[in-house]
Each structure stands twice: as structure tokens, then as C-alpha cells.
């Protein structure tokens, strides 16, 4: 376990008779970025939710920085402060400004004084290119700007790891680039990231490893350049061909 920030070991999850995750294992070192790809309904989002225990797994273990997240005795809220989560839909409070949306977690969850929370929120919004939108409400922001507020909200908590669950899939095509650029900036700053996305060009450019999941299992994984240029499994080849047809080579 030495040197690994995140260890996921043999995670299983079922909903009634439907087995969604069938023994998923993966590791993430500090500063690494890995992308999970695969068809819809294959358990990718469920896996992310099991990692930070928004959805408890049925079997298996997760460690974050040497602490077992899946231990029933663990203080899960303290763990969640260390794991940012950026969702498909922005989940912003519509009655709060961008600044308030970012600072509320710092005051409510981390207990920071309001002044310090505001400064950290300002810094996080600046990081995602929204310094000029701090007093705007969600209704006054584009979808891409709202998603960048969501990213800033995670960044402000200074997490050890950020999970991204298809952060661009709810956006109009012309707004995707600004969100990906904010994520690229985070990656270059050394943020540890585990992402579910269909943005193949983005995945190729910033990720250390691509993980292909189907039917609740990992079919293939490998370094991004090798994975795209020479996938070993026929099913991986078929999926990449189909995704390239749909989305193009990406950015």
C-alpha cells in the first residue's frame, strides 16, 4: 500500500438482482490522473460513489492515504472533506452566488471563519477562470460556468483527490472546452484525479492510465498512449471505434 493515495480492492455492488460492480480493483498514486471509460450502465458512476461512500459497497475495501474508508468505524464526513466530487449536473444552490456556493462548504463542513472561507473561495474561483463572476447567481451563468463553480467548490476544500463523474456530458458542445481547460489546469498543478468521461482527446492528453469497464468489470487498462494506439482486447477496440465515431478524436 506504500505510496498509493487511493486503493480500491474487490468492490462489489448490487441493486436487488442487478449486479452492477463485480469485483473492481484499482490504485491511484499521488498526482496521478486516471480515466474510466465504458458503455452506459456499466457501473462507472456507481464505482465513484462507492469510493467516497455516497453509495456503500456490498463487499470490498477502499483506502485513502492509508485510512480504510469502508471501515464502519471511520469518520466518513472527515474522509469526504478529503475527496472532492464533481457531478454531471452542477448541484449548485440557486439562491447563493458563485462565491457563496464555494465558501459554504468551507464554513459549514470545515468550520472556517467567514472571512477566511471567502478568500479561499475567491482563490478557487480565480483558478477556474471565474474571478469576474463571484457575485453572479447560477441562473446568470452558462452551463460551463456553473460546472466550473462546481469544480471550484471541490478545489476550495483542498482535497487529496477529486472524482469527476462525466463533468461535461450535460453541457452544450461549445461550452465543453472551458470546463476541460479548467481541469487541465488542475492536472498541471498536480491534482490527483479519477475521471469518468467520453472526452477521448482530453483523456489521452492528461491521463496516466485509461481503464475500460464493461458489465461491472475492468476489461482492459493501460497507459493512455498505448491504450489508444494498441488496445489488446477486441471489445476495447470496438468501443474506441464507436466512441470516436460519436465524439471524434476529441480535444
Task: Summarize this entry quickly.
The chain has 251 residues and is of the alpha/beta class. It is 38% helix and 25% strand.
Give a verbal description of the structure.
The structure is a single chain. The model has no long low-confidence stretch (mean pLDDT 91). This protein is of the alpha/beta class and 251 residues long. The strands form 2 sheets. The chain has a 6-stranded mixed sheet, with helices on both faces. It has a domain of 67 residues. β9 and β10 form a beta hairpin. α3 packs across α4 and α3 packs parallel to α5. The protein is globular, with a radius of gyration of 18 Å.
Determine Rg (CA atoms, Å).
18 Å
Beta-strand content estimate? 25-35%
Widest beta sheet: strand line-up: 6-7-8-3-9-10
Low-confidence stretches: none
Q: In percent, how helical is the residue content?
A: 25-40%
The coarse silhouette is globular
* Overall residue-averaged pLDDT value: 91
- Major sheet size, sense and barrel closure: 6 strands, mixed
| Ends apart, CA distance between termini | 35 Å
Annotation field: number of helices:
9
N-to-C SSE string, H for helix and E for strand: EEEHEEHEHHHEHEHEEHH
Number of strands: 10
Structural class: alpha/beta
